[in-house]
Amino acid sequence: MNIKIVIFAIIVLFVTSSYAGSDDADKDKNAQAKEAVQDKEVVQTTETAQDTDAEDPNEWICKRVQKTGTRFKSKMCGTRAQWEESERNAKDVTEQMRNRPQQGKATG
Fold first, then answer.
1. pLDDT in tens, 66-99
2. Where are the beta strands (DSSP E) in the chain?
3. What 3-state DSSP class applies to 66?
């Protein structure tokens, strides 16, 4: 009698855990689908902005940016001038990190 209860409990546990896992997978799929649609909208907006002959520095541009430490992207908006300044700053910081002197034991 006790073995039947243990087996039943194991089966119930297995079924509920597999159902919970499929629910998480569905949530992930829905999040990815929603993200893909939003990415497509941003790409279309960006392509429309690139079609213009003159690049207006005050033009408002939104991008999907992935933050470090997470797989989710967030929408960030700014003017063309702000995005260019941000890119310039990122390149400057990268160059500074690349050219800084190495710390550690001196060989010689």
1. 888 888 999 999 999 999 999 999 999 999 999 9
2. 60-66, 73-79
3. strand
CA atoms within 13 A on the CB side of 66: 7
Q: Are 98 and 91 in contact (CB under 8 A)?
A: no
Query: Which has more pLDDT, 34 or 11?
Result: 11
- In order of 14, 25, 42, the CA distances from 22 in angstroms are 12, 5, 30
Q: How far is CA 15 from the centre of its chain?
A: 32
Whole-model pTM: value is 0.43
Q: Which two tokens stand for residue 70?
A: 């997470």
With tokens 């690139």, the residue in question is: 50
CB 59 within 8 A of CB 79: yes
